[in-house]
Design a protein that fits this description.
Keywords: Heme, Iron, Membrane, Metal-binding, Monooxygenase, Oxidoreductase, Transmembrane, Transmembrane helix. With 369 residues, this protein is mainly α. It is built from 13 helices and nine strands. The longest helix is centred in the first third of the chain and has 34 residues.
Length: 369
């Protein structure tokens, strides 16, 4: 399968292309450009998740995910409105458009799956499928051949999994990147510390490789502290499988429990009196020692249903942050208003305008010699 490491050069290229576009957009007099990073980072994360899910059918996958972006826009609009039971079944203009989009996504995916199913035997001869879609198609036809029969995945399941991956993988990671850029713009001392680390380990120009990314300890600490203060998923849910006593409370079987990730991350009893402050140094001795309880840090959930995209998300975020630090110095735009708000995920309510200055434009020619 295409592992996160294998995707690195592709993701790196997408980030470098984005950075180069920012440079061309800069004001020639000041050398600066204002970018709403919350919009731009979605290009990077959409590309990464499309490659993971569709790999060799990248172009077809891109078309499907474009439709899904439109569908998500409808969903987040509905999320902002007052919930009226049954409203989603009414044939309003927006609902009708959503249903149409959903149908089109399904149709495109079913066609793509059909085409890939025909090619699956060749793929098996060459090794195994190189992307998530290939793995699912294999699982849908391999089930009966195993000694322990498992129920094969249906085409419908594959369609739903593709949709889940897109939602779970795109916005979450772009939110992490957005908040990381915002906090680094707010804390120039940490921005500079991280940049020095990146320049020392990866140099000033090349796309960092996996081994180099593994050495970026300060960048990891910053990403963790950002995930602590601004966890993209503010909560997760569990259903009690049996009657249980939790923290002195009797929880009857089948009760749904909300795990308030954000509240746990901001709890001064766990994190100390500076719980609401940005202090990446608390992660200097690793995640398990950052708080008074080893599992107080849960941006990706915990247990059997923990996020399966954690490694991909962190690698993608590290790579993107490293490439940006190599190329730019940045600060918050005066237009930025700090207003984290929950719209399914934790967003900056008024966007995240950040002013970037290319480092090569601020260096004297001597630096290049
Ligand atoms: C910074 C980025 C991300 C964050 C903060 C995040 C967070 C989470 C959280 C909190 C959960 C629920 C875990 C639980 O209830 O214990 C989850 C589940 C999940 N995530 Fe992520 N995620 C991120 C990126 C990704 C990516 C890149 C992918 C896809 C490659 C992905 C795919 C999934 C899937 C499929 C699940 C459901 C797992 C299951 O139910 O077994 N996530 N994620």
């Amino acid at each position: 399968m295409a592992t996160p490491q294998m995707l690195l050069p592709f993701i790196g290229k997408t980030v470098v292309d984005m950075a180069e576009k920012w440079v061309t957009m800069a004001d020639p007099a000041s050398g600066e450009v204002e970018i709403d990073v919350s919009e731009w980072f979605q290009i990077v994360t959409e590309d990464a998740i499309t490659r993971t899910a569709f790999g060799r059918s990248y172009e077809d996958g891109k078309a499907v995910f474009k439709l899904q972006t439109q569908l998500m826009a409808f969903a987040s609009e509905a999320f902002r409105k007052v919930f009226i039971p049954g409203y989603r079944f009414l044939p309003t203009k927006k609902n009708t458009s959503s249903w149409k989009l959903d149908k089109e996504i399904r149709k495109n995916l079913v066609t793509l799956i059909g085409r890939r199913q025909e090619a699956t035997d060749d793929e098996r001869l060459q090794g195994c499928a190189k992307d998530l879609l290939g793995l699912m198609i294999n699982a849908s036809s391999n089930g009966g051949r195993r000694r322990q029969p498992v129920s094969p995945i249906s085409v419908n399941d594959i369609v739903e999994e593709c949709k889940t991956f897109f939602f779970a993988g795109k916005q979450t990671t772009s939110n992490l990147l957005t908040w990381t850029t915002v906090v680094l713009a707010m804390h120039p001392e940490w921005q500079e510390r991280a940049r020095q680390e990146v320049l020392e380990v990866c140099g000033a120009h090349d796309i960092p490789c996996r081994e180099q990314l593994a050495k970026l300890k300060t960048v990891s600490m910053i990403l963790n502290e950002t995930l602590r203060l601004y966890p993209p998923a503010v909560a997760t849910v569990r259903r009690a499988k049996s009657n249980v006593v939790l923290g002195g409370y009797h929880i009857p079987r089948d009760t749904e429990l909300l795990i308030p990730i954000m509240a746990v991350h901001h709890d001064a009893r766990l994190w100390g009196p500076d719980a609401t402050q940005f202090n990446p140094a608390r992660f200097a001795d690793g995640v398990a020692r950052a708080a008074k309880h080893p599992t107080a840090f849960i941006p990706f959930g915990l247990g059997a249903r923990m996020c399966i995209g954690q490694n991909l998300a962190l690698l993608e975020a590290k790579l993107t942050v490293a490439i940006i630090l190599q190329r730019f110095e940045f600060r918050l735009s005066p237009k930025y208003v700090h207003a984290p708000t929950v719209l399914m995920l934790l967003h900056p309510q008024y966007g995240a305008p950040v002013i970037f200055r290319s480092r090569s434009s601020s260096q004297t020619p001597d630096h290049h010699l």
